[in-house]
Amino acid sequence: MKPKISIVIPCHNNAPVIGEAIESALAQIHPGKEVIVIDDGSTDNSVEVIKKYKEVRLVQNEKNLGIGLNLAKCMDQAQGKYVLYLCADDIFTNNHIASDVCRVFDSNDTIGVIGRYYYFFMDGKEGAIGVHRDMNILTSSCCPSGMAFRNKKVKGDNKIFIEMPLIVKQYLEDGWGWTMFEYDVFAARFHPGGNTGTKTAYYTQSVWQNWVDLIGNDFEFFPIFVMLKNRAPKMLWREICLAVKLKKTRIMKLSFWIYTLTALLVPGYFLKKLTLWQRNTIGRARSKIIERGNNE
User: Fold this and answer.
1) CA 265, 229, 138, 116 torsion: positive or negative?
2) Separation CA 124–CA 67 (nearest Å)
3) Are residues 46 and 37 in contact, defined by beta-carbon separation less than 8 angstroms?
């Protein structure tokens, strides 16, 4: 008998943390589930860690496909009617996520995508250092974890930061509706140099252009400039110039100047220290986790 829902975990060099992700997936209380890990050519001992979990089906790519193509591979390998994603360095916040996903899809056959809230935590420390409350199904799906879909053939693309939004867009273009779990479905682990978004090698394309291509020129998220200064400083000036070139009225916004001047004027070493301090103090003080509660 085919499983009702497939929990898919894309992995690439996540040996230190993937065990926790697998355990949170296996803990999901749903009798009709399968857990699959699709390893994308890891060069560390991720595969050895994964093989310790006998209940997990391991799929090993012959070569590294890249994030977007591997996300599509996850969907292709899933046998369940529904597919729930979890990144290898993240964890579900409770054991009822899979059941909630099945309940929503079963009750409304027009829904093809389910989004979610989530929070960030610092590796090795408890509590939230930031929360994600975006109600736009495209921009909120930048992080693949917790996104749920009806299983269908999708096309992957390795355009950075929009790998999952490009998959979501395919559902919307096919006429599927979407909904959002307004509670924190998963906790996103922040470990500098560990998760993909903190690796300098990831920044091979224009982040700003990718988002504009996806959702239009109204896209505005100026903290990108600080992120680039911390992770890919050689791209910073080009991205600032592109943002202004595409929409000159951006220079009239105070937030544009705050983030632009911070990124340009604060030395990289101090900016990284300031960013970590902000997360661990202001971010932690302001972040409130929304538990599943009435969504049972």
Assistant:
1) negative
2) 25
3) no
What domains lie within the chain, and their CATH numbers? Answer: 5-191 (3.90.550.10), 196-286 (no CATH)
Alpha carbon distance 262, 242 (integer Å) = 18
Residue whose C-alpha is closest to residue 45's, from 15, 21, 10: 15
Grouping H, G, I as helix, E, B as strand and the rest as coil, residue 247 is: coil
How large is the angle between the packed helices 223-231 and 236-246, nearest 10 degrees?
A: 160
Beta carbons within 10 angstroms of residue 62's beta carbon: 6
Q: Residue 197 burial (CB < 10 Å; 0-12/13-18/19+)?
A: middle
Whether 164 and 196 have beta carbons less than 8 Å apart is answered as no
Helices (H), 232-283: 236-246, 254-265, 268-278
* 8 Å CB contact between 149 and 177: no
CA distance 256 to 235: 17
Per-residue model confidence as pLDDT tens digits over 209-255: 999 999 999 999 999 999 999 999 999 999 999 999 999 999 999 99
* Other CB atoms within 10 A of residue 65 CB: 19
